[in-house]
Amino acid sequence: MAMTPKGMAQSIISETDQCTDPAEANNKFYKGICNHVEEAAQAIYAWAGVNPSGTPDPQVVLDCKIKTSGSLSPSGATDCTSALAALSAALNAAASTWIVEFPAGFSLSPAFVIPTISLSPSMATDRDSAIEAICAQIIAGLKLCTPTAAGAHAAYTGTATFTQLI
Questions:
Q1: Nearest to 158 by CA among 56, 62, 32, 16
Q2: Mean pLDDT over all residues of the chain?
Q3: What number of helices (H) and strands (E) belong to the chain?
Q4: Number of domains in the chain
Q5: pLDDT, tens digit, for every residue of 52-81?
Q6: Does the pLDDT of residue 1 top 90, yes or no?
Q7: Do 150 and 128 meet the contact criterion of CB atoms below 8 Å apart?
Q8: Among residues 124, 136, 103, which one has the least CA distance to residue 5?
């Protein structure tokens, strides 16, 4: 599966649909993002490891998941531009606590997601389209992260280099 703006938007809408309290809606908005990332995101890494005799590890591609954590701070912004800037900052701060989960058998240094989310207004005319437009920007910012990790796999030591987030 892959992250999609529509899938993330549906996750957010299903979480926030009945919210009337802004703080609760804020928390559920973030929960919707996290749910979609954990269910759909795949972080692909290139693994380059060698054993003590110099033989390369035959496993060269790692298919990883992302484990989310943290929370989203409310901004209190009263206009769209300020609200999106505050939401961008809050999402970057929260997502920087997310960690890449490497496959079993790999003992690697933690690789944290380093997002570069920057939200801007869209020309959407309804709630669902507006959320989907925001989700497209969130996913684009997450795909710019490039965390690497060093460590071991069985008798091999090496480095896992981020290649793509899908």
A1: 56
A2: 95
A3: 4, 6
A4: 1
A5: 999 999 999 999 999 999 999 888 888 989
A6: no
A7: no
A8: 136
